[in-house]
Amino acid sequence: MDARTRVAVSAALILGLLAGCGDDAAAPAAGDPAPQATGEPWYDETTPAASGGTTGGAGSPCPVPVTFPLADGWTAKAVEPPKGELAELVGEALTKRGGTTVRCEVDGRPAGGGFLRIWATDTPTAAPRAALESFATGAGETVTGQQFRDLRAGGLDATEMTWLATSPLAEEEAARNWALAVQSAGQTLVFAVNEGLITERTDVLPAYRLAVRGLTAAR
After folding, report:
1. Cis link prior to 33 (omega < 30° from 0)?
2. 153 in helix, strand or coil?
3. H or E element in which residue 69 lies
4. Burial, 73: exposed, middle or buried (Cβ in 10 Å; 0-12, 13-18, 19+)?
5. Is the pTM of this model over 0.70?
6. What is the spatial distance between Cα 90 and Cα 82, in angstroms, rounded to a whole number?
7. Coil, helix or strand at residue 102
8. Per-residue model confidence as pLDDT tens digits over 49-105
9. Is the backbone of residue 95 left (phi > 0), alpha (psi -120 to 50) or beta?
10. H helix or E strand, kind and range, residue 148
């Protein structure tokens, strides 16, 4: 290898390293298939759960303008705010977050998993990335390590975010969160799961991957 070739190769390596720096993960343009990033923080090697049915659409337990597959043993139910004066105050804290309102919850506890929650933005046409940023900070937790990527979620273009969150009320280790935002029928939706005290990523990611990779616009 002559001197000019060595210089060119070195320059290319330096540029490649610089291009890899930054807060956002390297991501394809929206509409491309889901990228594959093994290990922290995306864990794309996680195998989606086996399907046990579908939900979504008007009249379903998850009344949102998309349909998606349910992990086997997981059940969907609509989330209604509690009734009564005190219940309304408590319910507001549990059903509102960062400009979104929870619409349904997919419960995996009978199958040994956690929860997948689907939220609708209060401003229906909110941009997916902006919706995710507001959602992540909307619980009053300390948020660090935010990363974003654009991808194809089933039949829809989507933006996905992952971050670490620490509750100010507990001195526990920061929990890893994942959320994906899509737009359908004029509404922005956020699908969210997280690790916690009693759940690990292996409890929640298989059902989440199954759901978001099977998204279709409801008819």
Report:
1. no
2. strand
3. strand 66-71
4. middle
5. yes
6. 8
7. strand
8. 999 999 999 999 999 999 999 999 999 999 987 777 767 667 777 899 999 999 999
9. alpha
10. strand 142-153
